[in-house]
């Protein structure tokens, strides 16, 4: 499946600044605090939790955020002009994988960024095990064999651009590429869900199984707490869609995440606490069909 030509179609994520936290939401340190973007700035996130991440934790979160932003969504970010802290370093050309003849090896040719066809991928993870009643030991680490994939191009229909480029470059075939780093992506989901829950529930850090994942810890069995629906979902009007879902106090506390939901991307769920613990009348009700609502 392909997306229509993309340039200029993305709406801005609304800006929201929460009250300052005053200590690191991951480790509790009060030294060298900086602002935490719930969704990274490089993906257009504008929800900010001030004074919420220490320099050590910032280094850990920056690592997987960079991987997601550059490796997985680099061409997408260039195409949409999503924010970067290093504007001058933006490449004018990108390397396209091509074959000159059926019996030749694949090689790379530079093409202008505005004519670069590429793929956007999101890993499908299955629903979090805790929401389907499975024991934690049954859950896998950050791996998947299934991806949501869309062909994307800046200025033309994706397939028309491929045909044009084959003719213009005089090659036999083109292989648009995408890289999915599922580990980095699961860490990103953990960070987004936890920091958003802290922000929305009043700015107090709390114990969460997601903190370890967001801090570079072991990802074994992480699909017990993190997962996705595997369904075609309609695009939203907004750039991203985030919500903390309100279940009964005995049910898990769940954050729903759709990054770049404007493109019709999958819905993810991350369990920030095994039990909600108290009633939060201000939160959104659980999604229909989400097992948490029956707990
Ligand atoms: Zn910290």
Tell me the Rg in angstroms: 20 Å
How many domain regions? 1
Topology, number of strands: 12
Element-by-element helix/strand order: EEEHHEEEEHEHHEEEE
How large a portion of the residues is in β-strands, by DSSP E? 15-25%
Structural class: alpha+beta
Amino-to-carboxy terminus distance: 37 Å
Task: Characterize this entry briefly.
Helix content is 21%, strand content 21%. With 295 residues, the chain is α+β, with helices and mostly antiparallel strands. It has five helices and twelve strands.
Describe this protein's structure.
This protein has 295 residues and is of the alpha+beta class. The protein has one domain (16-294). Helix content is 21%, strand content 21%. The protein has helices at residues 55-72, 74-80, 158-169, 182-200, 209-214; strands spanning 16-17, 34-37, 47-53, 93-99, 107-112, 118-123, 147-152, 173-175, 226-228, 241-245, 253-258, 268-273. The strands form 4 sheets. Strands 9-12-11-10 form a 4-stranded antiparallel β-sheet, with helices on one face. The chain has a 3-stranded mixed β-sheet with strand order 1-3-2. Strand 10 and strand 11 (253-258) form a beta hairpin. The two termini are 37 Å apart. It binds zinc ion.
């Amino acid at each position: 499946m392909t997306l229509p030509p993309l340039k200029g179609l993305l709406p801005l994520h609304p800006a929201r600044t929460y009250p300052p936290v005053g200590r690191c939401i991951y480790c509790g340190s009060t030294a060298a605090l900086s602002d935490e973007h719930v969704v990274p700035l490089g993906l257009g996130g504008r929800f900010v939790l001030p004074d919420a991440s220490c320099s050590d934790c910032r280094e850990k979160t920056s690592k997987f955020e960079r991987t997601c932003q550059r490796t997985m969504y680099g061409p997408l970010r260039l195409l949409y002009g999503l924010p970067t802290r290093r504007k001058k370093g933006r490449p004018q050309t990108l390397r396209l994988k091509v074959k000159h003849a059926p019996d030749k090896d694949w090689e790379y040719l530079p093409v202008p960024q505005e004519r670069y066809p590429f793929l956007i991928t999101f890993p499908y993870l299955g629903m979090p095990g805790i929401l389907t009643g499975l024991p934690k030991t049954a859950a896998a680490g950050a791996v998947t064999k299934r991806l949501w994939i869309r062909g994307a191009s800046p200025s033309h229909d994706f397939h028309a651009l491929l045909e044009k480029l084959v003719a213009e470059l005089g090659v036999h075939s083109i292989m648009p590429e995408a890289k999915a780093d599922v580990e980095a992506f699961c860490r990103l989901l953990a960070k987004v869900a936890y920091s958003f829950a802290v922000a929305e529930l009043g700015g107090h850090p709390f114990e969460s199984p997601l903190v370890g994942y967001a801090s570079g810890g072991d990802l074994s069995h992480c699909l017990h707490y993190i997962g996705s629906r595997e369904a075609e979902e309609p695009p939203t009007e907004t750039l991203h869609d985030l919500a903390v879902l309100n279940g009964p106090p005995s049910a898990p506390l769940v954050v729903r995440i759709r990054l770049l939901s404007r493109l019709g991307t999958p819905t993810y769920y991350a369990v920030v606490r095994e039990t909600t613990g108290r009633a939060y009348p201000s939160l959104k009700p659980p999604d229909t069909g989400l097992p948490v609502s029956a707990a």
